[in-house]
Design brief:
The complex is a heterodimer of chains A (184) and B (319). With 184 residues, chain A is of the alpha/beta class. Helix content of chain A is 25%, strand content 32%. In chain A, helix 2 links the parallel strand 3 and strand 4. In chain A, helix 1 crosses helix 2. The longest helix of chain A has 18 residues. In chain B, 39% of the residues lie in helices and 14% in strands. Chain B is globular and about 55 Å long. Classes of the chains: A alpha/beta (184), B alpha/beta (319).
Chain lengths: 184, 319
């Protein structure tokens, strides 16, 4: 682990991010039962969309077929309309495929309180009735406020409330996970 | 998509909205459009919020658009129209305010013939306020839906942003709050706005007041325009002789295919509705699928009103 500056610690360098995603894909393939099940990868904007794209590509080559991918923007499903500071960036949901009776691999970058996942599940069920939903995250940082646990976690780290764990783009297309200590 | 700051509790007009604030609404609206195309056309964002539509003038389409917008965001929406309310029985605006306050709404959408009413309610009501039209003054959500519609068509018009855009607003801009609001919004975004019409139907000193160029000849005003916005001839607001006759008006000011030939090659045609066929616009133009974006405006109106409610309630509508 290298320290990039006084308040930032590198948790996953770019290469390791890819390795962890590859390992996630392998575990998901083994975990899909039966393996021919109709799988759809759904990323939660914005960080989860990045992980979902990489995961889908790896999983597709492992399974030997192109898996469909969709994206959820959960802005309008959040439970903190008035407390998000200052304004949420609104992205777009792109879920054009049929999700009824599919096996959804819901993907996010960092799992923390579980509220984002709660919102994403509500959003997802406005589009149809999947057969099953599995949660895959790049990093589980603990600190859950809801009874939500990942089915597949790339890394588990302990992080305090005064720290943020973030997936950030260092160079074009190079994604790293860093830990930052929040200041007042 | 950038981060746009929105800190307003009320939306009363376009006059003081910044470029960032306009984009904060347009971005949210562009995203909310997706909701309107789903099977389940509802998001839980404003669940538990109460929206009151308070209309002192009849307007089925605007009221319906606000009502549907609130419902699609899961708010509880009630309509109060003047014809069926105590206002007809002599209730003052002050007493209406007290009554509204007691119902504790989060957002009040108001259309009133006097702009002073909005200012009064905004000062004293705890709820957020949206101006849905005040006399000849402003109609901000109509302007925002026009801006969204134009924004969608920028690639077709081969424009990167609003700064090189020419918008010709044609007809009765004197009686039109839409013309004023849209001109103010376009000015903020850097477009060139033209008011095109007979001298008697243009607001006095329009150049200084709205930063527009004025044309008293239709073809000259249309020349090179990327966006042509026809305004409804508001016959109901004209007590005396603004125009000699409707037929003569169409002969000089009616938007026809032949006249649009001088506009930019892919120019789009807009109209705030309801349209008067054969008065300010010919049917061949209104129904031209290549040029007319009139029905896109209606769809965008719904999304823009959802976005406005979202942004206002996010800042702390209600308590």
């Amino acid at each position: 682990m290298s320290v990039t500056n006084a308040r930032e610690e590198m948790l996953l360098p770019a290469e390791e991010t890819l390795t962890v995603i590859r390992q996630l894909a392998e575990r998901i393939r083994e975990g899909i039962d039966p393996p021919e099940k109709r799988v759809v990868v759904v990323g939660i904007r914005r960080g989860g969309a990045v992980v979902a794209r990489l995961l889908r590509d790896t999983l597709s080559s492992l399974l030997g077929r192109e898996l469909p991918i969709g994206f959820l923007d959960i802005t309008f499903y959040r439970d903190d309309l008035r407390t998000i500071a200052p304004n949420p960036v609104v992205g777009a949901t792109d879920l054009t495929m049929q999700i009824d009776n599919r096996c959804i691999i819901l993907v996010d970058d960092v799992l923390f309180t579980g509220r984002t996942i709660r919102a994403a599940l509500n959003a997802l069920f406005d589009y149809g009735r999947p057969d099953s939903v599995r949660l895959a995250v790049l990093v589980d940082r603990g600190g859950r406020q809801l009874p939500i646990q990942p089915d597949f976690a790339g890394r588990v780290v302990k992080a305090g409330n005064r720290e943020s764990i973030k997936l950030v783009e260092r160079e074009r297309g190079e994604w790293v996970v860093v830990r930052r200590r929040l200041t007042e | 998509m950038g981060t746009h700051l929105w800190n307003r509790k009320h939306l009363l007009g376009m006059a003081d909205l910044s470029r960032e604030e306009i984009h904060a609404i347009l971005d949210a609206a562009a995203s909310l459009r997706e909701v309107n195309r789903r099977d389940i056309k509802k998001v839980p964002t404003l669940r538990g919020k109460t929206v009151i539509n308070l209309f002192y003038e009849n307007s089925t389409r605007t009221r319906t658009s606000f009502e549907l917008a609130g419902k699609r965001m899961s708010a509880d929406v009630i309509n109060m129209s003047v014809a069926s309310s105590s206002v007809k029985k002599g209730e003052t605006l002050y007493d209406t305010l007290a009554t509204l306050q007691a119902m504790n709404p989060d957002l009040v959408v108001i259309r009133h013939p006097e702009s002073g009413a909005q200012e009064f309610l905004a000062r004293h009501l705890d709820a957020s306020l949206v101006n849905a039209g005040d006399g000849r003054h402003e109609h901000p959500t109509q302007a925002l839906l026009d801006l969204l519609t134009i924004h969608d068509n920028l690639p077709l018009l081969e424009q990167a942003d609003f700064s090189g855009l020419i918008v010709a607003v044609c007809g009765d801009s004197l009686h039109s709050r839409v013309a004023r609001s849209v001109a103010l919004g376009l000015r903020t975004l850097g477009a060139e706005v033209r008011f095109v019409g007979p001298p008697g139907l243009l607001p006095p000193r329009a150049e200084e007041a709205f930063g527009v160029r004025v044309f008293h000849h239709l073809e000259q005003g249309l020349e090179g325009a990327h966006v042509v916005m026809a305004l409804r001839l508001q016959l109901e607001r004209m007590s005396v002789g603004f125009i000699p006759s409707v037929r003569e008006y169409f002969a000089f000011w009616g938007l026809t295919k032949a006249r649009l030939a001088v506009a930019a090659p892919n120019a789009i045609v807009m109209h705030p509705g309801p349209i008067n066929r054969g008065v300010e616009i010919a049917s061949e133009v209104a129904d031209d699928g290549e040029r007319s974006v009139i029905l896109d405006q209606v769809a965008n109106g719904l999304a823009v009103r959802m976005a406005v409610m979202y942004r206002l309630c996010g800042v702390g509508g209600g308590r």
